[in-house]
Design goal:
Layout lengths: L3 E5 L5 H18 L11 H12 L5 E8 L2 E11 L10 E9 L8 H15 L5 E3 L6 H9 L25
Parallel strand pairs: 4-5
Antiparallel strand pairs: 1-2, 2-3, 3-4
């Protein structure tokens, strides 16, 4: 297996990062089409544009995993100040991590995660938080093996659901 290099993303990486971002949107939509947005036609260019706007921020890390000159994964993380809505003091937040389907189960995500943790620690983040789709068991196993613990559970209810179909809690 060729070596993987994890490094900061540059503008030349944005087309590949955008393609992977579109894959992230598609996979989440497939996990739960009622919770996650339908992938728009411009998902790749939209992701590339957004992440490109983040590259110069010193408290944001957009990292890529490169193998044989090809970007095979990326991670997006930031250091965030106190958030009263989340009851969270200053922390690193891992927003995205994804690996191309052909490069999965080869340690690429683990290397990206290690790079993110190193970046956030270097920026003074005392902890890292993340969310993962309920159905994404592979990601949850990766995060647990890296020392993450469950702290919050997101719950979703469609407001147009038939009330008679809802169970009483007590």
């Amino acid at each position: 297996m060729p070596n993987v290099i994890v490094r900061r993303a540059s503008p030349k990486d944005l087309p590949a990062v955008g393609r992977l971002g579109a894959l992230l949107v598609q996979e989440h939509y497939e996990f739960d089409s009622r919770r996650f947005m339908r992938p728009p036609d411009n998902a790749a260019s939209g992701y590339a544009s957004f992440l490109g706007s983040q590259l110069a921020d010193p408290d944001v890390g957009v990292l890529v995993a490169e193998r044989d000159g090809q970007v095979v994964g990326y991670a997006y993380a930031s250091v965030e100040d106190r958030d009263w809505m989340l009851l969270l003091d200053r922390a690193g937040v891992l927003h995205d991590i994804i690996v191309d389907v052909a490069a999965r189960r080869q340690g690429v995500a683990r290397q990206l995660l290690a790079g993110v943790l190193e970046f956030l620690k270097s920026r003074g983040a005392p902890r890292v938080v993340l969310t993962t789709a309920e159905a994404n068991e592979a990601a949850q196993k990766l995060f647990a093996s890296a020392g993450f613990r469950r702290t919050m559970i997101e719950m979703t209810r469609e407001l147009d659901a038939d009330p008679s179909s809802l169970r009483s809690s007590g």
